[in-house]
Design goal:
Elements lengths: L2 H4 L2 H30 L3 E3 L4 E3 L3 H6 L3 E7 L13 E6 L2
Antiparallel strand pairs: 1-2, 2-4, 3-4
């Protein structure tokens, strides 16, 4: 191999590593989403939250539980209904 071709290997390995990590994260997200919905919650993938979560479910997954989160916390709404939503924010 020429020296020029050898310089490409670190970049290719880095890309392969990122793809492998992303695939693992996706599989982990699928499992946590399934667990959330099985417990009666609603999974919000964009923010890694389980709405209508129970505090003990959240604690078992090292999440941050908010018993009274805003129903509009993930929106840009100027007005919002005054309703508490129990939410587990996962790392």
């Amino acid at each position: 191999m020429t020296p020029h071709r050898l310089t490409r290997w670190p970049h290719l390995l880095a890309v392969a590593g990122i793809v492998a990590i992303a695939a693992c994260a996706t599989e982990a997200d699928k499992k946590i989403a399934a667990s959330c919905t099985a417990s009666g919650g609603k999974w919000v993938a964009d923010t890694r939250e389980c709405e209508i979560a129970k505090a003990n479910w959240c604690a078992a997954r090292s999440g941050k539980f908010d018993a009274c989160a805003s129903a509009c916390r993930n929106t840009r709404a100027q007005a919002c209904i005054m309703v508490c939503v129990p939410v587990c924010k996962l790392p």
